[in-house]
Design a protein that fits this description.
The chain is built from six helices and two strands, in the order H-H-H-H-E-E-H-H. The chain is mainly α and 149 residues long. The longest helix is centred in the C-terminal third of the chain and has 25 residues.
Length: 149
């Protein structure tokens, strides 16, 4: 398929992931760990955050998220504390070590966003909305039509 939109989106995603991983490695972390620190730092003032919030934000499975959180706990980046309303649920909080990194991580992601916005120019908002719609449309598996070989 020539000029495949799906392949180009995949290439762009891979490039962004590699850029994030490269920066994260300079901090001794992974790309997913810096994304998690950034997400929690940007949202913890608004509401309590739980593992389920990470699953939804990053579109990852429960087992993947559980492994991520456990590794971040072991690396002294996160702690799990009982929720105020229901002790069965564990809130995710950044440790002082993660908080020290959060400002640097935020600057990295702001720079990445600026680079993308510069490339997209006036089409940034429209492209964002189109990508959001693609993410929603493809969140359930595509089923092959009958007689599709």
């Amino acid at each position: 398929m020539q000029d495949s939109l799906g392949i180009m989106i995949k290439k762009a995603n891979n490039s962004l992931a590699r850029d994030s991983d490269h920066y994260a490695k300079s901090l001794g972390l992974t790309g997913m760990q810096i994304s998690t620190i950034n997400f929690i730092a940007n949202n913890e003032q608004h509401h309590d955050l739980f593992q389920r919030d990470l699953e939804l934000e990053f579109n990852i499975r429960k087992a993947t998220c559980s492994s991520l959180v456990s590794k971040m706990e072991a690396a002294d980046l996160l702690i799990r504390v009982p929720a105020k309303d229901d002790g069965r649920y564990k809130r995710l909080l950044l440790t002082p070590k993660a908080r020290q990194l959060a400002t640097k991580i935020e600057r990295f992601f702001e720079t990445s966003e600026q680079r993308m916005a510069t490339i997209l120019g006036v089409n940034t908002a429209e492209t964002y909305e189109a990508l959001r719609q693609i993410a929603v449309a493809f969140s359930t598996p595509t089923h092959a039509p009958e007689n599709w070989y």
